[in-house]
Specification:
Elements (H helix, E strand, L loop, with lengths): L1 H17 L2 H19 L3 H27 L7 H15 L8 H23 L4 H19 L5 H4 L5 E2 L13 H27 L2 H11 L1 H6 L4 H27 L1 E2 L6 H14 L5 H29 L8 H19 L4 H20 L2 H23 L1
Antiparallel strand pairs: 1-2
Helix pairs in contact: 3-8, 3-11, 3-12, 3-13, 4-5, 4-11, 5-11, 9-11, 12-13, 12-14
Length: 386
């Protein structure tokens, strides 16, 4: 019985993963992420990967909204900040003091309700007007949080601090062990969020989303309630955006108004275009590339390299130029690789898969394939000359 089950599992793995180069690469990358804490001893580098996992969840939620439903949002930080502030209020010992396994689900459900409330008026407009409307939401809420009469609740610019950690540090735990725990918690949540969004995107609801994205008028003509599905996509995206905000809040142990900053709203845009729009896996790749470039190459390696080789010390203002650097990188990628790094890679691996399939079928299939190709080329010549 066990042998039969193992044999079936192995056959399924070979057929659905091992024989498909793109899925095999994704599987190997997942194994790398699964065991990378054992190879990294530096807690700073592990912290980079933890924050990359959080950014990947945030970017995947934005990719689902824009890449699958076509609703352009430039204010996605509204959900990130709402999730962070609600879980901060509920878990803070100065207010309710609830455990985080209760505050995070409450926060993401509240974010869904707020997404519904914001989506009803904002989805009446389309295109750039929708982007401007969504961009105004986090700005309004950030100003409201800094309003002086509400300082006794939200603490103004200082924010709500002293929150419980995502993974509590026990007496016998070192900082490195706590970081490993945080890494695996964020990786599991990233994996769960990606699988759920991938399943939704490839379900019947996902097909409706794609039909609305392709032609909204034709979808209405087919009897699809377009407003209902747009609101559904808005709520699903807001749920996972709030989840990222909750995780970030308990990682940093505070929530403050910069969680609603415009730069945070633009961050998933940069990351998604870096990896590939409308792919679900593209923002994950983009998030890791972004954090490796931002926190390691530009912040650690490049200043050290310039100081040791040339003797030049970068000024503190260089931190403000990093977003401009990433914007230029995205512009170059949009021109050179318009479908993103991850999508370009999977397309190339798909070409390898097609060639390998023809090769494995033997020389006879190659003769048939070449004969068919030759017939097609000769048949197209008169048409071209005419």
């Amino acid at each position: 019985m066990v042998t039969t089950y193992i044999r079936r599992a192995y056959s399924s793995f070979v057929a659905h993963v091992f024989d498909i180069p793109a899925r095999l690469l994704a599987f190997l990358l997942f194994l790398t992420l699964l065991f990378i804490p054992f190879a990294i001893q530096n807690t700073y580098y592990l912290r980079i990967l933890i924050l990359a996992n959080v950014l990947a969840i945030f970017a995947v939620s934005w990719d689902f909204l824009v890449g699958r439903t076509g609703q352009i949002s430039l204010g996605h930080a509204i959900f990130f900040g709402i999730g962070g502030y609600i879980t901060a209020l509920l878990s803070s010992s100065k207010f309710f003091g609830l455990p985080i396994f209760l505050t995070i689900p409450i926060a993401i459900l509240a974010a869904c309700i707020i997404a519904l409330a914001l989506g009803i008026p904002s989805l009446r407009v389309k295109g750039p007007y929708l982007a401007l409307v969504t961009m105004s939401f986090p700005l309004i809420l950030a100003a409201l949080l800094k309003w002086y009469p509400l300082n006794h609740i939200f603490k103004g610019e200082f924010g709500i601090r002293g929150l419980p950690a995502l993974v509590p540090r026990l007496d016998w735990m070192t900082i490195g062990q706590q970081r490993v725990g945080e890494y695996y918690v964020t990786l599991i949540l990233l994996f769960a969020a990606s699988v759920i969004l991938y399943k939704i995107a490839n379900s019947k609801i996902g097909l409706v989303f794609v039909s609305i994205l392709d032609d909204e008028l034709a979808s209405k003509a087919c009897g699809i309630n377009v407003t209902k599905y747009k609101l559904m996509g808005f709520m699903i995206s807001g749920l996972f955006g709030a989840l990222a905000g909750c995780i970030q809040t308990h990682l940093l142990r505070f929530a403050n108004p910069p969680m609603f900053a415009l730069t945070l709203s633009f961050l998933p845009v940069i990351v998604t275009f870096l990896g590939g729009l409308g792919t679900i896996y593209g923002p994950i790749v983009g998030a890791y590339i972004y954090y490796i470039l931002d926190s390691y190459v530009l912040r650690d390696w490049l200043p050290r390299f310039l100081k040791e080789t040339v003797g030049v010390t970068l000024p503190p203002e260089f931190d403000f130029a990093k977003l401009l650097i990433f914007t230029l990188i995205v512009l170059i990628l949009v021109i050179k690789l318009p479908r993103g790094i991850a999508k370009f890679t999977t397309d190339k691996l798909g070409d390898l898969e097609e060639a390998r399939d023809l090769d494995e079928r033997g020389p006879r299939i190659w003769k048939t394939y070449k004969k068919k190709e030759k017939t097609t080329s000769t048949g197209s010549e008169p048409t071209a000359s005419s």
